[in-house]
Amino acid sequence: MGLSGTGLGLDDLIRQGAQQVIQQAIEAELAELLERFTSVKTMHGQRAVVRNGYLPERGY
Questions:
Q1: Domain interval for residue 12
Q2: Rounded distance, CA 3 to CA 41, Å?
Q3: Is 34 within the bounds of a domain?
């Protein structure tokens, strides 16, 4: 069995840790980008830079 009874080997634990660090870095970078462009609006007054799937569908 792997480390700490998890069934995972050292390589798997390192891979999982690296994936978590990368995911956190991407989320932080995305949050910073969205914050930087929060004042950019479309001609209809809606935010132009948004995260996909997080606002209601636009009615053009």
A1: 8-51
A2: 51
A3: yes
4: left (phi over 0), alpha (psi -120 to 50) or beta: left
**Residue 22 domain-assigned?**
yes
* Domains held by the chain: number: 1
- Token match 């609006």: residue? 41
Q: List, for residues 10-44, the tens digit of each pLDDT value.
A: 999 999 999 999 999 999 999 999 999 999 999 99
Question: How far apart are the C-alpha atoms of 59 and 42, rounded to whole Å?
Answer: 12
- Residue 10 main-chain phi, psi, to 5 deg: -60, -40
Give a yes or no: residue 38 inside a domain.
yes
Torsions phi, psi of 41, nearest 5?
-120, 155
- Three-state DSSP class for 15? helix
